[in-house]
């Protein structure tokens, strides 16, 4: 009976480590998602500002330490592409997050069942 409990405890420890890793992955996903959300907001703001400009307005792009003149239409297209890319990344991150959360819930259930089984075995051993 003692070896069964030890095996279950090893299995529990393994599943708990897996759960811990999933929780770290979820936290990392949230950090990356937050970064992209901020970038999306900044780019949408830039797009609004570009839309306010006249067709012949001067637009400059910062490349390293230098401001380079850029065509308004080109700047507008670049910002729109960036917004599309960031939006696609956010959708991908959301799908990944959903998958990770499903796995996390599954692991939590498995850990809980193992804990209950160990407790019932130990309670049965204490009575005997």
Task: Tell me what you see in this structure.
One of its GO terms (biological process) is chaperone-mediated protein complex assembly. Residues 83-117 form a coiled coil. Belongs to the prefoldin subunit beta family. Pfam families: Prefoldin_2. By secondary structure, this protein is mainly α. The chain has a single domain, classed as Helix Hairpins. Helices cover 84% and strands 8% of the residues. It has 2 helices and 2 strands. A two-stranded antiparallel sheet has the order 1-2. It is rod-shaped, with a radius of gyration of 26 Å. The mean pLDDT is 92.
Strand and helix map with partners:
Layout: H1 2-52, E1 59-63, E2 66-70, H2 72-127
Antiparallel strand pairs: 1-2
Helix pairs in contact: 1-2
How would you briefly describe this protein structure?
With 128 residues, the chain is mainly α. The chain has 2 helices and 2 strands; from the N terminus they run αββα. Strand 1 and strand 2 (66-70) form a beta hairpin.
Rg for CA atoms: 26 Å
Query: Which range does the strand content fall in?
Result: 5-15%
Kindly give the count of domains: 1
Q: Structural class, from secondary structure content? A: mainly alpha
- Profile the largest sheet: 2 strands, antiparallel
Task: Based on the model shown, name its key terms.
two-stranded antiparallel sheet; single chain; 128 residues; 2 strands
